[in-house]
Queue: 4 jobs
Job 1
Amino acid sequence: MQIKERGIILIPIDFTKQSLAAIRQSYNLAKYTHSKMVLLHVYEQTGDESYEALTKLAKQTEQESSVPTDFMSVKGDVYDQTDRVAEEINATLIIAGLESHMRFRNIIGSSASKLIRKAPCPVITIRGDDHRDGCENILLPLDLTPETREKTDIAIQFAKYFGASIRIIGVFDAKNLDYENKLLAYTFQVKQFIKSKGISCTNKSVPTKDIAASIVEYGNKIEADLIMIMNRADLGIKGFFTGTDSQRIVDISNIPVMTIQPMKRESMMSFGTGF
């Protein structure tokens, strides 16, 4: 899986500080990938289209970013419409702002998991209104399910865009020695593969009973700029890292989180490494 160059970055907005911060944090990625930005405003009642405000915001965004910017205003449910529009315009990426509290609000509400689960492309969720310029450290949580490997390709792609380092974290139950040994071997192998691409990479294994909290805590410790996880909600394979863990990482993380949609197993790409 790759984030396509010359693609479309879709940004749902509701004019809150968080959604405006999501626009600003999209600038560099849009430039590196030569992508167009599309600002999506979803309204519930006729009369709330906000065309004038959207026109002004799109023009301001294009001037500040030097990136082509369009806007759309559609009526309906924000979660359903964001996914529908993303599929309709063949969006490469959705970037959505979250309120700084520990629960979803505003543009991403209590049904945010629904948006992420059904999205036709990766989703980056950004909590708070702080603007992070660039990306120096990417945190890559790994387990032993096949789906977790798919993040590596995108992590490498992002690291090359931003000149970033990749920090692997393997989380495991300390009581499961066999799993721990396999995970240690696997994370080391992935680290070597990433380093062979000329990217700085470290790996660390952490015994834990709270996967989400441990990943976010480690992300803050290393000053990560992005956490990459898989959308695990519809996976039938049981692993230590579950769909509930993925959802909770998005829910509690003060660090931007990228949720990647798993490819169908019959079309899964190989990284050519044997891992």
Note: The longest strand covers residues 36-43.
Job 2
Amino acid sequence: MFPKVSLADVLRVFTRIGFLSFGGPAGQIALMHRELVEDRRWIAEDDFLHALNVCHLLPGPEAQQLATWIGWRLHGWRGGLAAGLLFVIPGAVIILALSMLYAIASNLGWVAALFLGVKAAVLAIVVQALLRIAGRALDTAVKRALALAAFAGLFLFDLPFPLIVLGAGVIGMAIAAWQPSLLALKPGGAQDGIAAPRPWRGTLLAIALWGAIWAAPMAAVALTLGRDHVLWDIGAFFSQLAIVTFGGAYAVLAYMAQEAVQGFGWLQPGEMADGLGLAETTPGPLILVTQFVGFLAAFRMPEPFTPLMAGLLGAGLTTWVTFAPCFMWIFAFAPWIDRLGQAVRLKGGLAAVTAAVVGVIANLTAWFALHVLFARVEQVSVGVLRLHWPDLASFDWRAGLLAALAGMLAFALQWSVVRILVVCAAGGLALTLLP
């Protein structure tokens, strides 16, 4: 028998979780499991895992969506809103402060030296994430083929990220309907997903309400600044990203980096690694790295505002359009959790997307490695291929040495992310500034 939980208890516990949610999705989910399933017994083990599987099907950060679902389960929309916001706000405030400091001080030599080490550490951390996810996700030949195809499509042919993710989902659903064992799925029975009710009214109401909340700041930007302003570009881009962010921050980062660096010119390649390093060291979802990008984009094209005010508006708009859809997905689909969790075709789509995400993260790893280790990287076209080719003479031996150090600390000594980042940042400072 599970205890009745007050809204005040939900607020208190999720405030604690919000400030302690380091370590990316795996660490955050483990923290919630310990706090809410093992220690307080607010949620049953089966319900927790069941909801987590469905959250993987939805675009957006699965840990934040799981927190929102738990709050909804305990106290309806009030609990869901409280839990989801408290999961995000502490990290968002810290990332905003660090983004302001980065924008103001990034031209200082000692700051650049620190972030040389941060970028090298992030490279090792991303490689570690790639191997961990691949070991868990690629348990059949079909999944390995999907991962390889996703990597080739992005790294060699420069295909659009949404096409990769959505295409993998369609393929997975088709395979699940034909031969689910190819994706390590059990065949579905005739009653799969039938027992739960069909709450269409609540779902449509949630989509309408949260769709309006999602669109409200974009309407304000269009009416006051116009659709040629950088804030419109920021809001439109991150709204699009919110729809295709399957697989978490690592999966979507390569697409975001490509557009933010090459498409819009908001950031330099190395700055994306700096942003991920900041997000790795702070609580909250790793997708908060989008706030760093939004801040810098508006800070550097501030008219008619001051740079600081523009940066604050860019960060706020980015956070709004990134997380408002997360609440919409959960409040719309929470009543359907029991049905969706047993749908074999949807599980097949999820399994295929997860496999493709391994290829996406491999592409991100290669992209990071090239831009961290080499000062100059060009994109070369060879027929239908689009290759990223480094200038070998621009190899940065300091970054290579620090990346090797980070790899040893991560794999051989199994240090935590924060400790690796601190040591490598200090190493970057020493190698750059000491005579």
Note: The chain has 17 helices and two strands.
Job 3
Amino acid sequence: MIFDKKLFAACAAMLSTPALAETEIPFALDWKFEGPSAPYFQALDAGYFAEEQLSVTISEGAGSLNAIPKVATGAFPIGFADINSLMRFLDQNPGAPVTAVMMVYDKPPFAVVGRHSLGVSAPSDLEGKVLGAPPPDGAWAQFPIFAAETAIDPEKITVEPVGFPTREPMLAEGNVAAITGFSFSSTLNLKRLGVAEEDISVLLMADFGVDLYGNAIIVNTDFAKDNPEAVTGFLGAVAKGWKDAIASPDTAISALMERNPAADAALETERLQMAIDANVLTDYVIENGMGGIDSDRMASAIKQTTSVYEFQNEPDATLYFDPSYLPTDGSLMLK
């Protein structure tokens, strides 16, 4: 055997070179480990985060507003939350180090979900009825805009504050006539509880003049300034996870089931597909890629918000969304 000094030196150099340290990123979801969270686990299991030298851990949330204070305080550097609630949070907490950097639900899943058999088939049917609404719910936060756009009188609706665990059961049992929630969550939870699909009425707020965006990836801005490449890498990995989920929902759901083995795989696959079809893979996203926003639509969304919420400070879209961390390597194109 011939001893190759150059080869030996090269191998020794490789062994002596320390591995690049991974950046630890705890990621705060908005909700439980259900179908729409599968793309993040797919990105984790496929090694997309690791390719960016990121060590990501994913935590459940307790509503679309839940991740905002977690990220603003720095407890989590990155989270997933309702951008409309973020606007109000920043208005009430000027200078808080948090902003959105990647739109995920281009068409928001905010909905009023009722039952035809209980007399709710259209927005006007809500008058004179009982509406169950969890206070931390992102859909409930936008209900005043929905009411204004559909010309219904909130004073004629009895609002029952409910908890997330009891929301769909109360509607299934007929204790309320409708609830606020995300379309894909409430619809499939009701089906699981035995409510016939033809009895479920889904009033998607975006179909009734509500020109808002939905949930986005949010970051702690101090963390982002110190770790811009990590944030961009994280967003690229997320886009790859969603692209995989669109191409093969079953594969993404398998990654989810590893973390939530008690879940119903078929139901969660249906829930994920609903989110893809109605909220993520919109015409805008197909044409422009995932993650960005349209400035005119954002201006309209802010205007609608001002119609039902009195800002303490002048609204400023640049405070709510910063596209500068989005990858530019083509990874945002989902089709």
Note: The chain has 16 helices and ten strands.
Job 4
Amino acid sequence: MKEKIISKASEMFLKLGFKSITMDDIAGEMCISKKTIYKYFCNKEILIEESTALMHIEIHEIIDNIVNKKHNAIQENFEIRKMFKEMFQSSDTSPIYQLKKHYPEIHEKVMLREINECNTIFKKNIEEGIKQGLYRDNINIGNYTTFYYNLIFSIKESTSSEKESQELELQILEYHTRAMATAAGLIELDKHLLNPTI
């Protein structure tokens, strides 16, 4: 039952917001009593913590699956962006923005958890892109990884609208890729930018 509550809460938090969803809402959606939820979670903050931990695992499993498909480095970034877009398409407000505003301590834990995972993914992507001849081989990988991480998460944390956040993320992805791309990389980038499904 505990896992079912976390799963349903995660779904509702992403769709309608961490602040607006109450324990009553979750209980009503699951057709269980609020007392049942409190049997496993003494307050909403603990439920949010466990929900964000589950989201982290699920998101990174999907990212790992995308990476394992061995797309070229530029396509891989667009596939990951597409995954996030589909995952958050029913959200009006950015989940990360909500967390930072209403639950700053939980937000801090989430960011500490994300920083290592994301930096590893971004670093590997740049290394692969260099091997594939899509990114220049004279860039400072550590700096470019940090630049990209900081740009992406500053947008997520400061933009309340999920739609606006996604539009800005696409611009950041283009900016990041153009800064590193070889002539072949620019051709690949333009191909993805012309694709309306992104």
Note: The domain at 53-193 is CATH 1.10.357.10 (Tetracycline Repressor; domain 2).
